[in-house]
Amino acid sequence: MNIEIKIKTLREKQHISQSELAFELGISQGTLHNIESGISRKIDFLLMSKVRRFFNKDFEYFLNEDHSPVSDEQINHHQNSINDIPENFIEEFRKLAERNQANEIIIEELKNQINSKI
User: Is the pLDDT of residue 69 over 50?
Assistant: First the structure.
């Protein structure tokens, strides 16, 4: 299952409209529609970080393939998407995810230090 389908599936499981999720992510409903339908394949790291936090999932969830049954159309779309991804994309994405998680820990520690001084 590719990222677009995972986002849509998570949204639908939580009974959230595209408009509601788009608002939470700080994007337009049209942008979210284009992402979920595969029209737009440009999902930047900041947006993926927001999606990850909103659904309480780690980056690996969106990178790993699961073996859910999918339609032939989804398989063909996924194969075309793979051909569009640069070779080192996944490795760079993982590195960025690790840095992002480390930054979140640092930010949380700083917040705790500030709160303890108040």
Answer: no
Q: How far apart are CA 24 and CA 32, in angstroms?
A: 11
Structure tokens at 89: 């994309």
Q: What does the alpha-carbon distance between residue 36 and residue 21 come to, in Å, rounded to a whole number?
A: 12
Q: Are residues 24 and 57 in contact, defined by beta-carbon separation less than 8 angstroms?
A: no
The residue whose two tokens read 């001084």 is 117
**85 backbone φψ class: left, alpha, beta (φ>0; ψ -120 to 50):** beta
Q: Tell me the one-letter amino acid at 108.
A: E
CA distance 27 to 84: 24
Check: CB of residue 25 under 8 Å from CB of residue 33.
no
Please report, as a single letter, which amino acid is at residue 24: E
Higher pLDDT, 69 or 62: 62
Whether the CB-CB separation of 9 and 70 falls below 8 Å is answered with no
Residue-wise pLDDT tens digits, 41-66: 778 888 888 999 999 998 888 877 65
